[in-house]
Amino acid sequence: MLACFDIGASAIKGAAFHSAEDRPLARREATPLTDLDRFAAALAAATADMERAEDTAARAVAISIAGVVDARTGIMTCANIPAIHGRTLAGELSARLERPVFIANDADCFALAEASQGAGRGHDVVFGVILGSGVGGGLVINRRIVSGPGGYGGEWGHGPVFGCVPALRGRLEAAGLPVFDCGCGQIGCVDTVGGARGLERLHRLVGGAALASHEITAGWLAGEVKASEAIDLYLDLLSGPLAMMVNTVGASVLPVGGGLSACRPLVAALDERLRARILWRSDAPLLVPAELSPEPGLIGAAMLGLTHLSEMRDV
User: What's a Gene Ontology MF term here (predicted)?
Assistant: First the structure.
């Protein structure tokens, strides 16, 4: 049995997996944000509960988390959970839980789950796209996560895409599109316009009211003028950087998750705009809704853990 967790700033979700095909009911509790002892104790208690319920010991713990793990040093970057930020979390938890602990970024786990059992089945190169509050992504090649230096592989939402060239920035601002500051410390990142908060920002920019993202997409589907202007701008801003990503990594499918993916017409419209901008021409959709809702993080954690355990047996 494998004890799997999907951890964010608001909640720890956990479930016991015996195989990657399992779909167990997840238990949920609040994430201890500032105390490592409480954080580790929560995982230990949840693992013990799973062992009692399954009547078997957990061979390992696998975690999908809203943070980045440097594969070289093992150091965790997770500003939203200060208790674990800057720590070699897998090693520390392994010592406390007395079993192997495997950790990966939640977007990477999402991509791994979709590549293995979801919309990316049968594809060698899968790029998972997250359109949530912000923008995220994960790259999987031959069913293995490509984490990159520092653990930042797949992060297409960051980098000064719209503000790196002064002349381009001037043109954008002259056209009425400011280059927004990003929480990562740079300017003009896709993340500033590509998630739900970005869409809301664009809607206000074109003169629309301060609406929630789901209200904007509903207005767009109803033919409301300002919502349609905001969505058209949104599609243009996202499709270019996404096309560069496809051209670079050669992904043949892009499962999309996150809150905005619930609007299927938006996914289809972004896919159409994307396919018009890539070098490869495909009549079939590339950007497709993810299939493993509601728990792709847990499924990805299970895939991660089972893969590592298999490799440990082969050594």
Answer: ATP binding
